[in-house]
Amino acid sequence: MHIGCPKEIKPQEFRVGLTPNAAREAIAHGHTVTVQTQGGVGAGFSDEDYIDAGAVIAETAAEIFATADMIVKVKEPQPVERAMLREGQLLFTYLHLAPDPEQTKDLLASGCTAIAYETVTDRSGGLPLLAPMSEVAGRLAPQVGSWTLQKANGGRGVLMGGVPGVGPAKVVVIGGGVVGTHAARVAAGMGADVTVLDRSLPRMRYLDDVFSRDFKTMYASAGNTIEMVREADMVIGAVLIPGAAAPKLISRAQLSEMKPGAAIVDVAIDQGGCFETSKATTHQDPIYDVDGIMHYCVANMPGAVARTSTIALSNATMPFMLALADKGWRQACEDDEHLLNGLNVHAGQLTYYAVGKALGIDVLSPQLALKA
Ligand SMILES: NC(=O)c1ccc[n+]([C@@H]2O[C@H](COP(=O)([O-])OP(=O)(O)OC[C@H]3O[C@@H](n4cnc5c(N)ncnc54)[C@H](O)[C@@H]3O)[C@@H](O)[C@H]2O)c1
Predict the structure, then answer these.
(1) What are phi and psi for residue 142, nearest 5 degrees?
(2) Catalytic residue annotation
(3) Does the structure show a pLDDT above 90 at 52?
(4) What is the C-alpha to C-alpha distance for residues 97 and 119, in angstroms, rounded to an integer?
């Protein structure tokens, strides 16, 4: 198969769909790989790195879209990219179609087959191609939160780990899933006093079994949540209700009960955020003040550490990318129901029920699409 990897063109996107190592593996499987010039530069990979791996460098995205059997990317294709997709071409990337009717219309019109990273599943019911980005965002949250807590940034001026004779920062993490667990581990590693709130008892049992030396757990009733938030120097929002907007757990009125200069890092902002006062910010202008509480609400946190994020994403996508290339999408999806769950679009038809429901479009069952 001829695998193509264009440079990402969405503003502020520095990741790339294939690392040189992933390209090398695909080539070792007998495939050819073309990468757009400077495609990996934002993640610290030069054209020479790809050439050393055996890939070919193309000057333009147009050359890649015109010739590749499979396009591997990070972000959803932008309008100019969608115009270049062809019938029968395979697209493997994040799509997030449910809130995006324009993109859905264009993908259907293109006749391509599109497999979305975010809906590929695993045996334990997880989302293996979303998890690496949650791990990154979770580990980054205390790092940006500690910066936000600094006096010059409007914060309380509290050091995460304290010093001998001065207590550590109190960090409260709401939601103990992938983001929350990684956030809590890093905050604890920085010496903070950390409590994780969640509504799932099995999840809290797991966290308590594995991490009881590092942080405490507490049931996320409304009463417990506001009590902990009142005492916190930093609150990290990490809840997720699959397929729904994040629940608003702290109202604007409740902000006034928090310590002045406390920091909120609302990682769940990509689902609307779990604080009433959260609004999405960018890496250029990441924090803002509401009633003396500093908010960090960057919707694409992994972009701040594009190199780590690219390698983590590529590690997770590589086995699927190789299966698609080795067997073709039909056989690969027939052999792996979890990869089939990633199928969102095939030959002008939508094949993912939740997207169809959100956009009011008829859906062809993915099993039937395999036979179409
Ligand atoms: N901003 C970013 O750059 C970025 C990056 C990655 C992930 N995210 C977002 O972070 C959020 C968390 O992702 P995840 O991968 O950790 O999800 P996850 O499903 O692994 O964890 C979510 C946790 O929230 C808990 N929860 C649900 N409702 C709750 C409530 N009312 N109170 C307390 N806990 C509750 C669940 O029990 C679960 O343990 C998602 O919205 C995800 O989209 C954002």
Answers:
(1) -70, -30
(2) 96, 270
(3) yes
(4) 10
pLDDT at residue 11 in the model: 85
**Parallel, antiparallel or unpaired: strands 349-350 and 343-346:** antiparallel
Identify the residue whose tokens are 């990996």.
Answer: 40
* Sign for the pseudo-dihedral over CA of 25, 343, 139, 203: negative
E strands, the chain, in order: 2-5, 32-36, 56-58, 70-72, 90-93, 113-116, 170-174, 193-198, 216-219, 234-237, 263-266, 287-290, 293-296, 343-346, 349-350
Alpha helices in 154-251 (DSSP H): 178-189, 201-211, 222-231
Checking if the pLDDT of 34 tops 80, the result is: yes
Amino acid at 245: A
Closest CA to 93 of 61, 127, 113, 116: 116
> Going by C-beta distance under 8 Å and a sequence separation of 6 or more, which residues neighbour residue 366?
333, 340, 341, 343, 346, 351, 352
Write down the pTM of the prediction: 0.92
- Mean pLDDT for 49-72 is 98
Atom of ligand 1 minimally distant from the CA of 241? 27
Residue with the larger pLDDT of the pair 321 and 240 = 321
Relative to beta strand 70-72, strand 2-5 is parallel
Q: With pLDDT > 90 as the criterion, what percentage of the chain qualifies?
A: 94
272 vs 121: which has the higher pLDDT: 121
Tokens of 244: 């729904």
- Out of 179, 226, 269, 296, mutate this one to test ligand 1's pocket (max ligand atoms within 8 Å of CB): namely 179
